[in-house]
Amino acid sequence: METVSPGYSRPRLVAPLQQDAEARIATACPGAVVAPWSDAPARDSYWGPSFQVLAGHATDPDVRFSGSSGGALSALLIQALSSGLVERVLHVAPDPDYPTRSRLQYSTSAQEVIANAGSRYTASSPLQEIDRILGEDVRTAFVGKPCDVSALRQLATVDARVAERIPIALSFFCGGMPSHAGADRIVREMGLDPAKLARFRYRGNGWPGVARAETVDGQVAEMSYADSWGAHLSKEVQFRCKICPDAVGGVADIACADAWYGDADGYPSFEEQEGRSLIVTRTDKGEALFRSAVEAGALTASPIPVRDIDLMQPAQARRKRLVVARTMSCRLAGHAVPKMNGLDVKKAAGDASLGEQSRNFFGMLRRILYRRK
Q1: How far apart are CA 254 and CA 279, in angstroms?
Q2: What is the pLDDT of residue 264?
Q3: Which of 8, 108, 219, 356 would bridge with 215, disulfide CB 3.0–4.6 Å?
């Protein structure tokens, strides 16, 4: 994987591909095909399959504070380690040489999980060493973007080692992957030099927490989540993310997200408060891990109606119901789109008004044609 302007990760061919390797890539690549949702007791066209839909948080105050929302993902990973379900966790962490960037992290203790908690709103490739990982006899929990988990599920259809080596896969609701340029712009807006950073945190240490930058000479600056994401990072999201049919981790064993509280206008409020996680268990394995964490006292959560997520995550609902309109314009312009069978995209599109569909169809068409000039 290499970084291309303005800061996205892309694969680079370094040797001729054998036919079987190319077939495996075509099977797993989420740019070619997105894994279909599996069966579960409940299913929603926006929010995917579920055993339970809950809101809760980690009971350990440090875990709850360190996470981007209520620390649920961290608590679940710590439980997976402590219970012996896995021997390590594969996730991403800040790159010490480039703190706004990410690198692979293998955590084997609660302390390591907590130290590397928090959202990473930048390009990451957590599966870049998957062949080596599958070749090692180590049970590994995987945490990644919904498209990463999709790739893992698709790879499992042609590689039996995935089920053996990775017994649990967790994900989160994803707003899209911004470029490195977006993070650098935040740092400059803070009045600091991206080349002189010692540490950088996108958010967390509170809910939602603030973007925080520290330079090697001791300068410190912060920016609110509403400004860092809303004014900068959200504008740097790559094209593929704008047509994502499953940004909610629908094929993960458990998916977590911010269980935002709505403000007076019904829009999520980003005022600082104690963290609260949305937790969706999607498989038998996910349900078992969740129950184990609750029984161990690591996690507390209560069921909520699935329609409550509409209020917590309105941007995700909007994107899902507009996937069909956006991909229709892509096809009209001769732009490739991934296969997305079994993800209820047409059902979700039925909730979009004709005006909303039209604006997004023509808006996407203009975006494609303008980008080609």
Answers
A1: 7
A2: 63
A3: 219
User: Is 239 domain-assigned?
Assistant: no
- Decide if 357 is inside a domain: yes
**Cα dihedral sign for 190, 194, 199, 204?**
positive
- Both tokens of residue 336? 């490739």
64 within a domain of the structure (yes/no) = yes
Please report, for the domain that includes residue 27, its CATH number: 3.40.640
In the chain the beta strands, taken as DSSP E runs, fall at 2-4, 8-10, 42-44, 48-50, 52-58, 88-94, 102-107, 140-143, 168-172, 197-201, 211-215, 220-223, 254-258, 277-281, 299-303
pLDDT attached to residue 262:
80
Q: Walk along the chain (373 residues) in steps of 10 and give the mean pLDDT of each run.
A: 90 92 94 96 98 98 94 98 98 94 96 94 93 96 98 97 97 95 94 96 94 96 94 92 97 97 78 95 98 98 97 95 97 94 98 96 91 57
What is the span of the domain harbouring residue 39?
18-93+100-175+244-314
Q: Identify whether residues 67 and 169 lie together within a single domain.
A: yes
Length of the chain: 373
C-alpha to C-alpha distance for 174 and 258, rounded to whole angstroms: 10
Same domain, 252 and 369: no
Task: Output the pLDDT for position 138.
Answer: 97
